[in-house]
């Protein structure tokens, strides 16, 4: 059989596995809360792997190795920012959000949590945050479809549109059928594939080198890839060479975005107990660190691997983003290589499915249920969510037919939008008792508008839009809150209750949430 045939077999096996998990999840999804949040039943391993896989898109396997290969270790600043930001998110947001979201009227989406936390009777906070989610996630989902189309184009030499439609159809199918449970468990499989591939490929390539130790010196003194003038890239191992302070700050600022990413923080809300956030943190950050290390080693080994044998070359001669895929094709049997290639597909689909579900939840939970005169039956709500998944996929697909921006550009825009609009608000909601609805709304709108304006009018060439957006949102949130009326006593009392619940569950990890909540409530009433 030809190499392409083996690749197709591997892709079919992968796609069939995703659909099978979707069907299994469908059999276990009876209630609306099951479809939206898996009835808060995720164990820490599944939550951590799901958060990681839905976070890390094709950038981890293609964009990061390619950038490190071409430029050098100065490209690691984004990875460092993301690693620190993810750790901080698990440490400070995960346990308290899990407690508070249940105390605040069992909130199952981010907009509903903000509204319940601040008792916003106007519904403006919930509606505006839902609209922000729908707006930015439509672009985010579109970027996944663009990546899927380009993946098929590069791997099989097929048509972009056909590949985009195949990836979109399978992702929509298992999300449509199985909801949050399907998305979470497919994320586990996809995260495992990404992890295994990023470890195996650079290790096998290292073994194939004549002198493995060359990886620590080759790039700085020998020709490779885009460097053909006989001196290589002398600053390859220098993390600050040729990089401005603004660029370093902007790259590190990607980590700030974690606090406001709805598709990531919703995993915290789905944990069985707040105490399990600690275990989830070590699993998630360990997975992320090893994946980034694997991507870095892919670039390092690649500088020697593709120079050692003049008969082989990187397919992408511009951004060199195919070095991971090219290594996989060259080192393994076509079936194994095909399974390695699915790692990129897994990264794309895991992110896309999470985003589709969050958007559908916002449409139904945060917009439809507000205007509905009567609350529909559970099955009706589930079917409405499924319809919303399809609707958003169609809109995102229409945008992806003729993409006007790069994949990283689309992702960076959406990431900054969520980080600036929801990041300061999330931290203030969990840790500042004085916060009120006016400050929350003003800060959230400011963050979204500044990011949109900064990116639209060229400010991102100066510094990543996350930086001015996050700073402006924080400043406006604080100022408006202090200039307006303090929150009512019921709001501050509930804040104290949520804090105590988090502390009780932290000190007694074996206690279930219901028992702890009853204990805290009893103390409050006394």
From TrEMBL:
<dbReference type="InterPro" id="IPR001734">
    <property type="entry name" value="Na/solute_symporter"/>
</dbReference>
<feature type="transmembrane region" description="Helical">
    <location>
        <begin position="462"/>
        <end position="483"/>
    </location>
</feature>
<keyword id="KW-0915">Sodium</keyword>
<dbReference type="InterPro" id="IPR050277">
    <property type="entry name" value="Sodium:Solute_Symporter"/>
</dbReference>
<keyword id="KW-0769">Symport</keyword>
<feature type="transmembrane region" description="Helical">
    <location>
        <begin position="380"/>
        <end position="401"/>
    </location>
</feature>
<dbReference type="GO" id="GO:0015824">
    <property type="term" value="P:proline transport"/>
</dbReference>
<comment type="similarity">
    <text>Belongs to the sodium:solute symporter (SSF) (TC 2.A.21) family.</text>
</comment>
<feature type="transmembrane region" description="Helical">
    <location>
        <begin position="280"/>
        <end position="306"/>
    </location>
</feature>
<dbReference type="GO" id="GO:0031402">
    <property type="term" value="F:sodium ion binding"/>
</dbReference>
<feature type="transmembrane region" description="Helical">
    <location>
        <begin position="127"/>
        <end position="148"/>
    </location>
</feature>
<feature type="transmembrane region" description="Helical">
    <location>
        <begin position="188"/>
        <end position="209"/>
    </location>
</feature>
<keyword id="KW-0813">Transport</keyword>
<keyword id="KW-1003">Cell membrane</keyword>
<feature type="transmembrane region" description="Helical">
    <location>
        <begin position="6"/>
        <end position="24"/>
    </location>
</feature>
<dbReference type="InterPro" id="IPR018212">
    <property type="entry name" value="Na/solute_symporter_CS"/>
</dbReference>
<dbReference type="Pfam" id="PF00474">
    <property type="entry name" value="SSF"/>
</dbReference>
<dbReference type="InterPro" id="IPR011851">
    <property type="entry name" value="Na/Pro_symporter"/>
</dbReference>
<keyword id="KW-0739">Sodium transport</keyword>
<feature type="transmembrane region" description="Helical">
    <location>
        <begin position="68"/>
        <end position="90"/>
    </location>
</feature>
<feature type="transmembrane region" description="Helical">
    <location>
        <begin position="335"/>
        <end position="359"/>
    </location>
</feature>
<keyword id="KW-0472">Membrane</keyword>
<feature type="transmembrane region" description="Helical">
    <location>
        <begin position="236"/>
        <end position="259"/>
    </location>
</feature>
<feature type="transmembrane region" description="Helical">
    <location>
        <begin position="407"/>
        <end position="428"/>
    </location>
</feature>
<keyword id="KW-0029">Amino-acid transport</keyword>
<keyword id="KW-1133">Transmembrane helix</keyword>
<keyword id="KW-0812">Transmembrane</keyword>
<feature type="transmembrane region" description="Helical">
    <location>
        <begin position="435"/>
        <end position="456"/>
    </location>
</feature>
<feature type="transmembrane region" description="Helical">
    <location>
        <begin position="160"/>
        <end position="181"/>
    </location>
</feature>
<comment type="function">
    <text>Catalyzes the sodium-dependent uptake of extracellular L-proline.</text>
</comment>
<protein>
    <recommendedName>
        <fullName>Sodium/proline symporter</fullName>
    </recommendedName>
</protein>
<dbReference type="GO" id="GO:0015193">
    <property type="term" value="F:L-proline transmembrane transporter activity"/>
</dbReference>
<dbReference type="InterPro" id="IPR038377">
    <property type="entry name" value="Na/Glc_symporter_sf"/>
</dbReference>
<keyword id="KW-0406">Ion transport</keyword>
<dbReference type="GO" id="GO:0005298">
    <property type="term" value="F:proline:sodium symporter activity"/>
</dbReference>
<dbReference type="GO" id="GO:0005886">
    <property type="term" value="C:plasma membrane"/>
</dbReference>
